[in-house]
Specification:
single chain, 13 helices, about 75% helix, about 0% strand, rod-shaped
Length: about 375
């Protein structure tokens, strides 16, 4: 076995990519782009395994010829992802484009294998030079790889230019562009060696090292949706954590005004963001209904207010009155008729309203204990 990468490192990369890919197939495989990424991962693992079978670092070894073909197949999925992300084609036609570029990659691989076999039958070694068999093999590999990675990089640059691209997506795009630059750098070195003889050494060793690094970087970046899904399933995402904080407040208010609880609509899903929106709307509706039952501020209210920072006194007093209003409505008492405003503040956007409800939920258990 001849490889520029230590065996321990190579097998560690293979194991790492296999674990990430297994998780993606398990949790992240529904969308077209996710299926493309998963198939690309399978070809990446196949390439790394084939490289483990190579006995020499030259193109004469059939393992290296097949590895070059697998690299081309891997980059075809970059092309399809770039077309899909760039909006050049509809998702339904992506797989047709993928089949077409896969056929071209297969043809390029066949030309590499046939050129090497022809040279071997003629009793000569294949030298990667700008003449003869070496030129044909170099073009069959470099041209499709460059074009496929260019299409993908163009889509990443488009995402970077878009003003609404999230920061995390920008970081991923920059990392993916950088990994493609590694492949281009190796091609530039290979071209330099073909033309001038520098740097001296097996060119395929550079390709193998660069591809292994490319696989490790891209697998890590493309595993971000997997991590997000694991966080979501563990209930550690922001929306789920906020729902847990609002739950005591929501439970007490909807118990007093149960008719405002909206039925779950399966068509719109029941994800954390949807649950948070529903919970926020229902809390606000309950507060509106309980506005007529709010008692007026009295000395008793002030005595029931526990020691709070100055900024919390207003919201704590409102929590006490809201608890009494909920108790009165549950008991079937008539509205207080105090003319108190149904809501303590008028939120101008969802974030401001949610921030107020989070503050109210924070002091709700203590206020409830003080009132009861």
């Amino acid at each position: 076995m001849s490889s520029p990468i230590p065996e321990v490192v190579a097998w560690a990369v293979i194991g790492y990519v296999t674990v990430l890919l297994s998780g993606r197939f398990w949790l992240v495989g529904g969308a077209v782009v996710d299926r493309l990424v998963n198939h690309m991962g399978l070809w990446s693992i196949a390439t790394l395994l084939i490289y483990r079978c190579a006995s020499t670092p030259t193109i004469d070894d059939p393992a290296n010829q097949l590895a070059l073909g697998c690299i081309l197949m891997t980059t075809t999925y970059l092309y399809s992802i770039g077309r899909l992300a760039g909006g050049d084609s509809e998702p339904d036609t992506v797989w047709r484009h993928q089949r077409n570029v896969a056929l071209l990659a297969s043809a390029a691989t066949a030309s590499i294998v046939l050129a090497a076999a022809s040279a071997r039958c003629s009793g000569r070694s294949v030298d990667l030079r700008l003449v003869g068999d070496g030129l044909g093999i170099g073009c069959a590999f470099a041209v499709p790889l460059t074009y496929n990675t260019f299409v993908f990089t163009r889509s990443c640059l488009g995402a970077l230019r878009a003003v609404d691209t999230p920061r995390a997506a920008r970081i991923v795009c920059i990392g993916l562009i950088g990994s493609n630059a590694v492949l281009w750098g190796v091609q530039a070195l290979s071209l330099s060696e073909l033309a001038t003889g520098w740097p001296d050494g097996p060119q395929l060793s550079l390709v193998q090292a660069a591809f292994t690094l490319w696989v490790a970087i891209d697998s890590t970046l493309l595993a971000i949706p997997l991590v997000a899904e694991l966080v979501l399933r563990a209930g550690m995402d922001r929306a789920t954590r906020t729902c847990r904080r609002l739950l005591p407040l929501w439970r007490d208010l909807t118990a007093a005004v149960p008719e405002i609880v909206m039925p779950v609509d399966a068509r719109h899903g029941s994800g954390p963001a949807t649950r948070l929106l529903r919970m926020t709307v229902e809390i606000r509706d309950a507060m509106l209904h309980l506005g007529a039952y709010l008692p007026a501020e009295t000395d008793e209210t002030q005595r029931n207010t526990v020691r709070e920072p100055e900024s919390d006194r207003g919201i704590t007093d409102y929590a006490h009155r809201l608890i009494r209003a909920a108790q009165a409505r549950k008991a079937g008492l008539p509205p207080a008729g105090t003319g108190a405003p149904p809501l303590p503040v008028v939120a101008h956007d969802f974030d401001a309203e949610l921030a107020y409800l989070i503050d109210l939920a924070r002091i709700w258990p203590q206020a409830k204990a003080a009132v009861e």
